[in-house]
Amino acid sequence: MPNSSWNHIYDNFDPIAFHIFSFPIHWYGMMYVLALVSALYIGKYFIKRDNLEFKEGHLDIYFIYIEIGIILGARLGFILFYDSHTSYYLTHPWQIFNPFDANGDFVGIRGMSYHGAIIGFFIGSYLFTKKYKSPFGKIMDLVAISVPLAFTFGRIGNFLNKELIGRETDVSWGIYVDGVLRHPSQLYEAFLEGILVFLVVYSYRKYQKFSGELILVYGMSYGIFRAIAEIWRAPDAQIGYICCNFITQGQVMSLGMASIGVIFWIYFYKKSRI
To answer: CA 4 to CA 149: how far, in whole Å?
Structure first.
């Protein structure tokens, strides 16, 4: 059986990076902040490199809109799609963003859903484009190329926080989680959903046929790669497998996301040909 320091990384790893006064700052939170900020600056890089038409300062304002939408959507999505105490939070909404546990200890806000974040992102984007009269399609194209690499940091944050753990395994690079050897599935997802999705979207740019197409390519490729990554990811404990003792809710939602992307792509492609 594996017995290296890598396999036992959680035994010696402190999820708290440092403290500000009495408040702990977790690596998890730092990774998510890094993901959001890097997405902003990747977007600025492509605006400058490709000389894209964006009004001065609009990207910074847009970033605030979608950051709020993503955080709200991710948290609410987790409560609606995954949490086993949904009814409690719906009847006690002030507890949704409570960072303290029942003992009054600061534990941060845990439980975020990617698919909920997507819904919040689109709502924030819609509100921004309506107010500032910005072309929705062009903004979506920029988001599609800016998000994937930044998303990699989010998955690394999941790994450092010992969450979204992998399925049991006997591979030599497995990680012990509470005495059980598991796939480091978060890192698989960082590669598949971050780096590979970026390469797909970036490579497809030269074939783009209509405004907004890249966000559909992103949705399709992310959905497929996420469904593949879930092969090595353990199902959520409160849900388990939803079909055949193998299929997870994340796979169903991701394939649904990819399917919606295909439907919209066919519709807008035919419309662009006309």
So the answer is: 29
Cα(112)–Cα(118) distance, integer angstroms: 11
Q: What are the Cα distances from residue 14, in Å, to 10, 24, 243? A: 8, 11, 36
Output DSSP code: residue 167. Answer: P
Q: From CA 62, how far away is CA 215, in angstroms rounded?
A: 16
3-state secondary structure (DSSP) of residue 178: coil
Residue with token string 């009847």: 91
* Interatomic CA distance for residues 156 and 27, integer angstroms: 9
Ranges assigned E (strand) in 136-217: 175-177, 180-182
* Residues 214, 208 contacting (CB under 8 angstroms): yes
Tens of pLDDT along 93-135?
Answer: 777 777 665 566 665 566 777 778 888 988 999 999 889 888 8
Higher pLDDT, 239 or 128: 128
Q: How far apart are CA 165 and CA 5, in angstroms?
A: 18
Distance CA 69, CA 125 (A): 8
155 marked as part of a ligand binding site: yes
Per-residue tokens: 94: 């002030």
Amino acid at 201: V
Q: Coil, strand or helix: which one is 16? A: strand
Using the structure block, give the residue that is written with the tokens 């490579």.
203
pLDDT, tens digit (0-9, with 9 covering 90-100), for 6-63: 999 999 888 888 888 888 888 888 998 899 889 989 998 998 888 887 776 788 898 8
